[in-house]
Design goal:
Elements (H helix, E strand, L loop, with lengths): L2 E6 L6 E3 L7 E14 L5 E4 L9 E11 L5 H12 L2 H15 L9 H23 L9
Antiparallel strand pairs: 1-5, 2-3, 3-4, 3-5
């Protein structure tokens, strides 16, 4: 399960071992520095560009997914992609795209699948760059 909008006072590591004896990690991504304000009740709110007249705190907002062994770029990518787009959703997008190609559906049914493919390429590039930074292999040696 993907968790989004997480906040931390410290910048999270992109790869966070859970030390559970099963080599499971949390893959933290889309990490961004944000300014927050805390209400009297303790609620934390992200404020765009700071907030005039209120004291702000720097925090880090990010998303996270749990990745099981093996910890490789291929597995991190597959886990993240399948959480964002379960196979059923991906098939639906592809079927609607092909139906639009054949003229069965209006041409605007192509766009969601094209958007998915663009996001897939961006996710792959992000995961590969993060894994390179942490010396995580693309796949396990044969």
């Amino acid at each position: 399960m993907i968790q989004t909008g997480l906040l931390s006072t410290e910048q999270p590591s992109k790869i966070q071992p859970l030390n559970n004896g099963q080599m499971t990690v949390l893959y933290n991504y889309d990490i961004e520095e944000v300014q927050t304000i805390t209400s009297e009740s303790g609620t934390i709110e992200v404020v765009p560009g700071g907030s005039e007249g209120q004291e702000t705190t720097t925090m880090y907002r990010y998303s996270c997914v749990r990745v099981e062994y093996p910890i490789t770029a291929d597995n991190i990518f597959a886990t993240l992609l399948s959480e964002k787009y379960p196979a059923k959703v991906e098939r639906k997008l592809a079927n609607e795209y092909e139906s639009a190609q054949l003229g069965i559906l209006p041409v605007d049914h192509k766009k969601p699948y094209e958007d998915f493919l663009r996001e897939r390429v961006a996710i792959r590039a992000m995961v590969d760059a993060d894994c390179l930074e942490y010396n995580i292999p693309i796949d396990l040696p044969a």
